[in-house]
Every structure is written in C-alpha cells, then in structure tokens.
Amino acid sequence: xxxxxxxxxxxxxxxxxxxxxxxxxxxxxxxxxxxxxxxxxxxxxxxxxxxxxxxxxxxxxxxxxxxxxxxxxxxxxxxxxxxxxxxxxxxxxxxxxxxxxxxxxxxxxxxxxxxxxxxxxxxxxxxxxxxxxxxxxxxxxxxxxxxxxxxxxxxxxxxxxxxxxxxxxxxxxxxxxxxxxxxxxxxxx
Length: 189
Known about the structure:
Layout: H1 2-20, H2 26-43, H3 47-70, H4 84-108, H5 114-132, H6 138-155, H7 159-183
C-alpha cells in the first residue's frame, strides 16, 4: 500500500506544481493521483476521504475539459472577501456536514475516525467551493483541513499523505498571504 500512497503523493505534488504554472497536463496527473488515493483511503477505512476523492476525480475531469476548450481565453477573477455572515454560514455548513456524514459513517460503515474523516471531507468541499469562487477565506478552510489531516494520516500510518498535507499546509499559508497582499491597495503619495 505504501507504493500506491507514494505514487499518489508524488503525482499530487506534481499536479499542483503544474496547476500553478497553468499547464494542461496537471489535470490528467491529478486524476491519476486522486484515483490512486481513492484506493488507499478505501483500504484504510477512511470512507469520507474516499468519497471526497471520487468527487475530485469529477472536478479534475471538468477542469481538464475547461482548460482544453478555453485555455487562455478568460481573465482571472478578482479575489473577494466573505462577509462575516457568509463566513459563519460556510463554517456552519462544514460543521453540520461533518456531523451528518460522521454519523452515517460511524453507524453504517466500519470507517475509522468517522467524525474526523467527515470533518476533513465536509470542510474540503466548502474550501473547494470558496476556491472556485476565489474567496480569500478558502485558504483558512484549507489550513484547518491540513492541520486536522496531518495527524489523522500519521496515526493511520499514511506517512506520505501526512507529508503531502504538510506541503499543502505550507502552500495554503502562502496562498492566504499572497492573496491577502493582492487585495491590499497600495497607496502612493
């Protein structure tokens, strides 16, 4: 299983690196990474993560299609900031989703760490939505996911995934400060 985890980790890092450079090959590599991750999570009884990665397969196919048909034809959307009310709604959705999914996984499957796994899944879905809409706060949700996922994967002895999420944590911190800086107006006298 460690070989699959290593391949998923390497291809995951490569996919993110290629996405930052806006390379079309990021998408099929990401699909490979998340498809292998589905198997690793299934084998480790982390069913919420497994389901999340199924969704990521679909999102990566969608991204590959969009980039293939419209690459370079749209402008980057300006970074937005959530209102306090919207932030509370998003956090509430992540928490409620965690309890609902966690309850299901805990009572109807043999999932390990059902509520923690459900939390990272629900919060990742909220973060992904905020990222797609280019809200600054997406990075805060990703940071929380990474902080929770690292010890979970370490405890499950998924060391490569723990390392991957440490890299994701560092990238999320950089993303938050970079996007926040982009939003700060520069005043010249």
